[in-house]
Amino acid sequence: MIITAAVFTTQGLRFIPESSPAARGAAAANSHGCIECHGRSEPGFPDDANLSCVDLSVKITHPRYDGRCSDVLAYFEVVRLKRTFHRRAESPNQSRFLQGEILARQYNCFQCHGELGQGGFRNAGALKGYIPGYFGNDFALLTRNGSTESVQAWIRKGVDPILLSRPIEGKIAEFFIEKQEISMPVFGTLPDTAIQILADYVIALNELGAMDAKAIRAYGQRTQ
Description:
Blueprint: E1 7-9, E2 12-14, H1 21-32, H2 34-38, H3 69-89, H4 96-106, H5 109-113, H6 136-142, H7 148-157, H8 161-165, H9 169-179, H10 192-208, H11 213-222
Antiparallel strand pairs: 1-2
Helix pairs in contact: 1-3, 3-11, 4-10, 7-10
């Protein structure tokens, strides 16, 4: 679903960027080199059992940084999950939800759409300048409100043909598909079962929305 990330409405185009706590946290962490200190081992990340956020920027022992602490903690949570993925993937009793994550990582979906589809990656030439995540208005309007048929079409063909067939939205979408730097890969050779599992997983992530640290930790418990 990598295209314009445009929001098409009956009132016309809206150019409101969408983001998630994890995506904002990743931007803050990368700009301030958080991984240089925290990224060498999992215990290096802050871990509050109550998921209450302490403003680390006011601590004398911690460098000041821009951005909300809650966003950075959400980013730390997706890093934890990425690090424990192989352990979870080796589980003998894989849920369909975990099978979807396995496929998403195998085919590098998160490299463009952000960890757990939380978005935030730049895409030069796209209308809103980024690749949409699996949440919010961008996703809904590009996938016909998250329909299974549309999500499967994006996976199989790299675009939903029905979107392109629309008189106004289709012309705009086609223009930015050609203009954008990163385009949606085509996975039409995947088995039907794999495409269905992957589509169901993407839709399930959409239902979770833009996740904060608590929601991401709950996601991890769901895939244990």
